[in-house]
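Example with several molecule types.
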Amino acid sequence: MQTEFGFIRNLRNYRNFSLIGDDCAVLPKDSDNDLVITLDMLVENVDFRLRWATPEQIGHKALAVSLSDIAAMGGIPKWTLLSIAFPAEVWKTDFPDRFYDGYCKLAERFGVEFAGGDISQSPDTLIVDSVVGGEVEHGRAILRSGARPGDLVCVSGSLGGAAAGLAALERGATADSARLLLPEPRVELGRRLFATGQVTAMIDISDGLSGDLWHICEMSGVGASIDAASIPIDPIVHSVFSERSDRLDCALNGGEDFELLFSVSPEFAVADFENDVSVIGEITANAEIMELKDGNRTIPLNPDSFRHF
Amino acid sequence: MQTEFGFIRNLRNYRNFSLIGDDCAVLPKDSDNDLVITLDMLVENVDFRLRWATPEQIGHKALAVSLSDIAAMGGIPKWTLLSIAFPAEVWKTDFPDRFYDGYCKLAERFGVEFAGGDISQSPDTLIVDSVVGGEVEHGRAILRSGARPGDLVCVSGSLGGAAAGLAALERGATADSARLLLPEPRVELGRRLFATGQVTAMIDISDGLSGDLWHICEMSGVGASIDAASIPIDPIVHSVFSERSDRLDCALNGGEDFELLFSVSPEFAVADFENDVSVIGEITANAEIMELKDGNRTIPLNPDSFRHF
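Resulting structure tokens for the full complex:
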């Protein structure tokens, strides 16, 4: 059975869908700016559970995942459209109103206008599809395909917190689930990085560090070498997992942190970003080979993070 | 329990979502053109059934419903994005490839570029959400809100064919289901109507004539009087239903014909559109009152067509 990524690669190669394969589609807008546009579908019991998240949190997350895609292009989000299919028993509750409360509160915070949507009925599964459109200076959207050997690999914030939160929820603990349930899209940071002019490729970490780094390597025709000791691990990971190998696995392969993963020219001034950006490795010329340096050992780094199929 | 239309009205009124309520959102693009953008979610066993439609037909329909919204604004479709959630057992089959075949064949026919999408897993229901973006001359998108008393009410093509096809399928007959399964978006007609400069309000018939006319009346603050004898009834309706009342009900309240319903100034030259446009009534000053003239009788015309909730 093919993976979703293989399927998407086939769409790109055999159907000549040259536009696909980045966090956002980049389309012509006017002489100054391009339109960047993304959509993300969240499915009940795959991407969220009604018993773990409040309606407001689900609304927040539905928009946050798309805002994060705009951030990964260096764009400014402008407007949103939303499709929802509600099961009848969910429609009858206060869920729809509270969902929109969460969605709109985040939209307002980023100055994003709610421009329309579609409401459908679903037999039994709640489905949300959020579209966000934004702008980026013409020809300057940051793609996945620009990484060059010798570039540094960087990541924002810390990793593994969402996966650790999920593990905690599965054990019945709710205290550490904020990163999973209320992800913060790194829109301002994306613009600050854009402004340096030194970011050569960028993606948001939705599937997980290993898988999302793989997307950059594949699209750029490069490899990467990552230093395990440099990966910023979320404190929540330490409180949830006691074994070092579990902690590293969480940071490497846990999804949904919605931090930015990017490559930069070597002269990038990481100190300008205080402790919010970490250099974790470098881009190599070994096309599509990723490795992890862990102490004295160098081992293959496989894209083991989340995929649907 | 509130209806979906009541809910949407509340979004517009209480959340100041002034942009919503038309077939497409209208957003600024450049000095010449606005961006028109729409999205439509189709849910298995609500909007289509895998046992009645081929994968190619479902792909065709997923795009056609959104192209139809662009047509209803007088716009030109340009690009599309697509979210799909596949149940695992559907993903394993040739469904995804055949679905994209149907989707892309229609996209190509209208010069619409496939710009990206999202693939998810769904526990058991296939869900498709298609986004289409297009362009229309700045400030000139045809809204639902421009109908004026004295305008003529017109409809394109013929009505009831999709509902009659559904009734036939429910009885086990498949011969008459083409309108339901392969709807034809009226994009060229929408542009021709736009070019007359005389269309004051327009919508595509997705819910049904009575319900979609109601949307125009509500948004324009007007009423409408429809002449039953002038409604163009699809020949398929005649072959499926023998009673006149069933035939009329099918044409008035059957959804998914994806014809254009619009109001025009009285000087509109309907003859220029051969037999493809019918004048079926007129807009009145009786705000939100719709009536049906049937022979000597005039009866209230209620918005009885499809709604999800």
